[in-house]
Amino acid sequence: MAGNPYKLDKPQVQDEVLDRIRITLTSQNVNALEKVSAQLIKGAKEENLVVKGPIRMPTKTLRITTRKTPCGEGSKTWDHYQMRIHKRLINIKSSSEMLKKITGISIQPGVDVELPLHSLQCIILHASGDMLIASFPKMSELNASIELDHPDVAEFDDFVYPVPKPDWEEPKNGWCCDRSIIARRTKQIEEVKKKPAYQEYVEEVPKICRLPGRIHPKAPNKFLNYSRRSCDAQMKIWKRSLHTWRQDLEAKKSTYTVEMCFRSNSQPENSLPDGGGGYVPAYAAYQNGCPLNSMFY
């Protein structure tokens, strides 16, 4: 049956663009954290969305010291206690409109929620009463994508996790999974590698010849989960060790040059390589290509 030429085609409905979103939940109260995570996952599954999580991250322990009174004696004037911060990650593939519906839930007091997108744009969440309200950037920014510029970072959908080498052991504080932190550490290391001290170090000491320990400078591992202050301190130690190694190398080169100049000026003509002096016929014949055994037969 031929189609009706006067029949207008229906406008096609464009599919909604799904964004890869990572929800970060932090709290001191584990029960409240688990309750909010369960609510978010339940709302996403009811909408038939792809959900991964909650992923349990390493617990951070903060050691806090406070003064009891302005004046006092000894250690009695200080209070020492620990604060444990729990963290969960939830990965969801959803559109912006659907995410507004999912995040419209009641949250427990003391639970912080962050939603950084794959485009490095953040969805800001704030509590209005006991409700969670999301404010979104422009859709053109939501649909943007980035590419990882480092081969040692593996990307599993919307979750970035470092790939440890075979000889690496599981660190005590766990691995760093924050993409912005890994990118910042990568930038700092690359800036140091562009310096003349590191270029000379690579030429003089190949990677297979470097010894572990404090003998040769070693770049800090950017995938370990340590604090910002600890990372900056390790970067300073690495830079200082590179400059110290370069100064020692220049001192050794200058000493070797002076010694070679002294030997070349003091060695007589037609002498042995060890500086013994004198003319040796056998050695002269050997230099001309005659075997030493033929000199005695």
TrEMBL record:
<keyword id="KW-0963">Cytoplasm</keyword>
<protein>
    <recommendedName>
        <fullName>Small ribosomal subunit protein uS10</fullName>
    </recommendedName>
</protein>
<dbReference type="InterPro" id="IPR018268">
    <property type="entry name" value="Ribosomal_uS10_CS"/>
</dbReference>
<dbReference type="InterPro" id="IPR005729">
    <property type="entry name" value="Ribosomal_uS10_euk/arc"/>
</dbReference>
<dbReference type="InterPro" id="IPR027486">
    <property type="entry name" value="Ribosomal_uS10_dom"/>
</dbReference>
<keyword id="KW-0689">Ribosomal protein</keyword>
<dbReference type="GO" id="GO:0006412">
    <property type="term" value="P:translation"/>
</dbReference>
<comment type="subunit">
    <text>Component of the 40S small ribosomal subunit.</text>
</comment>
<dbReference type="InterPro" id="IPR001848">
    <property type="entry name" value="Ribosomal_uS10"/>
</dbReference>
<comment type="similarity">
    <text>Belongs to the universal ribosomal protein uS10 family.</text>
</comment>
<comment type="function">
    <text>Component of the small ribosomal subunit. The ribosome is a large ribonucleoprotein complex responsible for the synthesis of proteins in the cell.</text>
</comment>
<dbReference type="GO" id="GO:0005829">
    <property type="term" value="C:cytosol"/>
</dbReference>
<feature type="domain" description="Small ribosomal subunit protein uS10">
    <location>
        <begin position="22"/>
        <end position="116"/>
    </location>
</feature>
<dbReference type="Pfam" id="PF15247">
    <property type="entry name" value="SLBP_RNA_bind"/>
</dbReference>
<dbReference type="GO" id="GO:0003723">
    <property type="term" value="F:RNA binding"/>
</dbReference>
<dbReference type="GO" id="GO:0015935">
    <property type="term" value="C:small ribosomal subunit"/>
</dbReference>
<dbReference type="InterPro" id="IPR029344">
    <property type="entry name" value="SLBP_RNA_bind"/>
</dbReference>
<keyword id="KW-0687">Ribonucleoprotein</keyword>
<dbReference type="GO" id="GO:0003735">
    <property type="term" value="F:structural constituent of ribosome"/>
</dbReference>
<dbReference type="InterPro" id="IPR038294">
    <property type="entry name" value="SLBP_RNA_bind_sf"/>
</dbReference>
<dbReference type="InterPro" id="IPR036838">
    <property type="entry name" value="Ribosomal_uS10_dom_sf"/>
</dbReference>
<dbReference type="Pfam" id="PF00338">
    <property type="entry name" value="Ribosomal_S10"/>
</dbReference>
